[in-house]
Amino acid sequence: MKTNTSALLPLKILISAISFPRILNLFRLPQIRAPNFFMLDATVIGCLRFEAFFTFNFLKDYVYLAFCKWESSMKAKAAVIFPSLNYLGGAVRVCLGFIKVLSKAGYEVTLFTVDKTRWNLIRRVLGDFGDLRFKEHFIISRFPKFFDASLRNISLALFYILEVLAVRFFLRFDIVLVVGGELVDCLGDVVYINALPFRLEHSFPNKHFGRSSIWKSYSRIYDAFMKLLSRVDSKGLLLTNSHFLRDIILEKTGRDSIVVYPPVETGKFMSNEGEQRLNLVVTVSRLHPGKSLNVVLEVAKLVDGAKFLIIGSSSGRFEEALSELNEAIKRMNLEGKVIMMVNEPSSKLVEVLSKAKVLLHTQPTEAFGMVVVEAMAAGCVPVVPSSGGPWNDILDRRQGVYGFSYKNVSEAADIITLMLNNEDLRREVAERARVRALCFDKSVFEERILSIINAIK
Questions:
Q1: What CA–CA distance (Å, rounded) separates 230 from 246?
Q2: CATH number, position 191
Q3: What whole-number distance in Å separates Cα of residue 265 and Cα of residue 373?
Q4: 436 and 398 in contact (C-beta within 8 Å)?
Q5: What is the Cα Rg of the chain in Å?
Q6: Is 298 in the same domain as 222?
Q7: Pair (83, 104) in one structural domain
Q8: Left (φ > 0), alpha (ψ -120 to 50) or beta: where does 212 sit?
Q9: What are the tens digits of pLDDT across the range 285-341?
């Protein structure tokens, strides 16, 4: 940080008005005492005045220069703004990844969220993120219990907009990073979009909006509001987590972006391929109605000789999604064949993926899908929808090379059956997938973000 010399003028006045011992103590500088040349002089008062004058002139420049050095060495301040870490998912890892990079770059980081973070839950589900040092501010401790999922989501979006505006225009930071770009895609020096923006969801007829199409109307209204907000400040650098998402935003809004893949801790999931694997198909997802998890049940109905495991993490509407899935499992007579696990520790996820043969991904509009890369690193063969970031960016649209895509339930069932019965082919694809996963390692993310931050300083 460059020292603003004009801002130091009040300090010069202050130095001449208060005692130096206090200044020296304030800045924790060694107290330097002038030689007491006149202590034996008969005119004690005059001597003391001379000594004080001598000390003043001796220390004035010393304190002034020391303060300049202290101010210039102060850390630059960075604000990271994210709606809520309590919804878990890959975006939380991206947010913490930004904090890690900024801290390494020498910034003093402050995290702003809408609600208080439940760190014990995050460490349990997502694992340990190491010794991250940052300040944390939030608006509310938690949403009232009588808020249903829809009201919580609406409140979260409104509070988040207000928080971004407050940080951007009323607080002083050297760099502001809006990591929840799917809700607010402006008002930051850097804006990172993790998923299909809510303002664009009405443009996708296959996007799940819950039981009421009123959410499409909300999306249209929100889009109009974002257009107005963009006029206030849209000069920041826009980042997206996949080329799939970049193309959508460019087509719908006319704004281009830089693709920076999310940070995946591939080393954590690397396993010994020599171990015997089970006829196990795993799906990892936030428990939310929009994740199309019913596909798992439909595929399981068509595949013999395998168990299906859904590892879910809680989100805004996870009670609703969990209830619907459990009811469907009973209705389709899939008890014992489809198993649900909720908010399991990250060590359990690593263990399961190291034993499974296939990862079945179900969300057709997934922007990236960090769990797909994690499963590939663990030696699973990914089977993903033929749309979205997993197929476009992770598998590079190459059928049978790093994994497989499917257009419908029956095609997914056929691919999974092939992987369960043809061990040689499964191993061949899994080995290529493992190498491909390294392209999305967290070190790549950290290097890209660091270069971007340095470029905009």
A1: 18
A2: 3.40.50.2000
A3: 9
A4: no
A5: 28
A6: no
A7: yes
A8: beta
A9: 888 776 788 999 999 999 999 999 999 887 666 677 788 888 999 999 999 999 999
